[in-house]
Amino acid sequence: MAGIGTDAAAGTGLYFEPVFDYEQVLVVGPNHPLRAASHIEPEQLAVEILITYPVHIDRLDIYSRFLTPAGIIPKQHKRIETTEIMLQMVASGRGVAALPRWLVEENAGKFAVFPVRLGAQGIDKKIFLGIREADVDIDYLRAFVDLARAYRDR
Question: Where are the domains of the chain?
């Protein structure tokens, strides 16, 4: 059994292999005043409608790594199930979102959305492949980890 996620927890009985790195960014529409910014600070989101996936805010990097440490909450928080609807709302000026840069760039031809760095240093993330430690030596799982590692290193 294998899983993919962004959190690698030590002492869980799982082996984690980093698969790839990405940057979490703010996503804005074509007429948004922050579109041309080199980066934004948490205070700038206090007047925004923030659109996220429907998960607890403790699991959202935009909160745990950016807003909460600064003591900032957005004007409004909307939860949307699908990425496509989220991007449509951002493109139409109905809010901003925080998503991986690669996802924004991949969808830029379909939606008028633009990435803006979160903070001067940005928010870097990793995607991990997790396997139960007891299963690490199973041939097909070992091959899967090796394939993920080869993809990451190319």
Answer: 2-153
